[in-house]
Amino acid sequence: MASDTDQVSVRTAEVTTTSRTSRYTRCRRWVRCILSSRKKHYATLLFVSIDVASILAEILIALITCDMGRRDEPWVEPAEGGLQIVGLSFSSFFLLELLVTVWAFGPRYFSTWFHCFDGVVIVVSFVVDLLAHGIVEEIASLVVGFRLWRFIKIVNELSVGASERIEEFEVKVRQLEHENAELRGRLCEAGAS
């Protein structure tokens, strides 16, 4: 026969497990709210814009040095090195964002082709950015096209922001219609009296 101490231990273990599970669930829900927020979409829009600007700067530097025929200018190497660091930083950030998003939303995050393709672009960009410091440097120019995909992400972020605003306006319209109907009813009652 189990002692009272054993029963208390089992109950304590059950409560602790339930507490951890609910804390984990609350944490995922909280992260989902943050990832779905307007502020997050605007922050992503800002980061993607800066990343696209750095990609365009890389292209501009490549065009200028090619046109001049001299890559030995003193400013070229530091500028390219700095832009590579910026590119790797953004690739790392977007990879971290992808991992957190998949954790928060689960596999259903990839239910749309946009998220699937965006995930592939993020992973490929990150891998190429990591390997772009050696033999793979020539192949790295292909990733510029992939990274420019992030420009499409800007459009997506803007459309998400617009749809959120539309939802807010729809709620407000419903509230005003309800209030209007209520006031009309009062007017009719006052006029009938």
UniProtKB/TrEMBL annotation:
<dbReference type="Pfam" id="PF00520">
    <property type="entry name" value="Ion_trans"/>
</dbReference>
<keyword id="KW-0406">Ion transport</keyword>
<keyword id="KW-0812">Transmembrane</keyword>
<keyword id="KW-1133">Transmembrane helix</keyword>
<keyword id="KW-0407">Ion channel</keyword>
<feature type="transmembrane region" description="Helical">
    <location>
        <begin position="42"/>
        <end position="64"/>
    </location>
</feature>
<feature type="transmembrane region" description="Helical">
    <location>
        <begin position="85"/>
        <end position="106"/>
    </location>
</feature>
<dbReference type="InterPro" id="IPR031846">
    <property type="entry name" value="Hvcn1"/>
</dbReference>
<dbReference type="InterPro" id="IPR027359">
    <property type="entry name" value="Volt_channel_dom_sf"/>
</dbReference>
<dbReference type="InterPro" id="IPR005821">
    <property type="entry name" value="Ion_trans_dom"/>
</dbReference>
<keyword id="KW-0813">Transport</keyword>
<keyword id="KW-0472">Membrane</keyword>
<keyword id="KW-0175">Coiled coil</keyword>
<feature type="coiled-coil region">
    <location>
        <begin position="159"/>
        <end position="186"/>
    </location>
</feature>
<keyword id="KW-1003">Cell membrane</keyword>
<feature type="transmembrane region" description="Helical">
    <location>
        <begin position="112"/>
        <end position="132"/>
    </location>
</feature>
<protein>
    <recommendedName>
        <fullName>Voltage-gated hydrogen channel 1</fullName>
    </recommendedName>
</protein>
<feature type="domain" description="Ion transport">
    <location>
        <begin position="59"/>
        <end position="155"/>
    </location>
</feature>
<keyword id="KW-0851">Voltage-gated channel</keyword>
